[in-house]
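User: Can you recover a sequence for this backbone? Please restate the input before giving your answer.

Assistant: Of course. Working from this structure:
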């Protein structure tokens, strides 16, 4: 999905499928003025953010910089990142996502729902080489970009791309086995009730959903906590990641999958119930 504004949750269809064309149009020669054409210079790490970037990426900072450049160039051209986001790749995207790594156990398997351009999944794979990451994305143009980036950055041993919806990944489809992970991540995909419905079935029991949210986090928890509980999730909590490293820190809603809940059965209609009563 498009990650133009982390504070605004994009409502999507079942399992993270967008309801229509992307809101961000590809930045081509006709739609983008020459002075806003994507440039590798847009992805340069601002000096004031260098200490935070080094803390979060360590000796893989060069790899993170290569990904940032791909986002600011190919990502813009292919409509995955808005042109105005390119100069803000580091503070709004790279560092914001990398900070979430502190909530992920060592050696965990991570499933990134609605991965879009790879945020936060690819960032986490770069920052934490101990993780095994699956990027779940239904749209072909986005999965094509993800596959190319994984290959160009040499991440094929730890990162795979799953083309499909979250529900297809959880149940298995087209001859593919169901997949699950220790941690499920999502960024600006959907409101918490829908997101939990798509994501919690992907988590193992005792695993967790880490949903990157903005200022809506507390309000969403208050509104959707009952739905989360019915889906087998524990009490949602708000975590601030990267405190003392980035400003502002990343807001994450964390939900532990406490119970395994099967799909809800559709309620019988009044007409069918009446019919059975008459037959009796």
């Amino acid at each position: 999905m498009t990650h133009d504004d982390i504070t605004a949750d994009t409502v999507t269809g079942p399992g993270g499928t967008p309801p229509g064309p992307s809101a961000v149009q590809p930045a081509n020669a006709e739609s983008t003025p020459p002075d806003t054409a994507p440039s590798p210079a847009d992805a340069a790490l601002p000096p004031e953010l260098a200490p935070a970037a080094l803390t979060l990426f360590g000796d893989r900072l060069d790899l993170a910089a290569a990904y940032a450049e791909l986002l600011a160039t190919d990502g813009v051209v292919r409509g995955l990142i808005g042109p105005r986001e390119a100069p803000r790749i580091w503070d709004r995207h790279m560092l914001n996502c990398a900070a979430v790594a502190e909530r992920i156990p060592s050696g965990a398997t991570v499933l990134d729902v609605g991965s879009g351009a790879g945020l936060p999944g690819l960032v986490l794979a770069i920052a934490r080489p101990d993780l095994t990451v699956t990027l779940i994305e239904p749209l072909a143009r986005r999965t094509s970009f993800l596959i190319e980036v994984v290959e160009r950055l040499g991440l094929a041993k730890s990162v795979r791309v799953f083309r499909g919806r979250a529900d297809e990944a959880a149940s298995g489809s087209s001859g593919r086995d169901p997949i699950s992970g220790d941690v499920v991540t999502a960024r600006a995909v959907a409101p918490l009730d829908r997101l939990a419905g798509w994501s919690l079935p992907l988590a193992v029991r005792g695993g967790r959903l880490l949903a990157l949210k903005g200022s809506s986090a507390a309000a969403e928890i208050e509104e959707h906590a009952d739905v989360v509980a019915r889906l087998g999730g524990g009490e949602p909590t708000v975590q601030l990641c990267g405190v003392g490293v980035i400003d502002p820190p990343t807001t994450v809603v964390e939900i532990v999958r406490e119970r395994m809940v099967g799909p809800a059965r559709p309620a019988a209609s009044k007409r069918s119930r009446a019919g059975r009563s008459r037959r009796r």
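That completes the design. The beta strands are 109-113, 132-137, 159-163, 181-187, 203-213, 237-241, 250-256.
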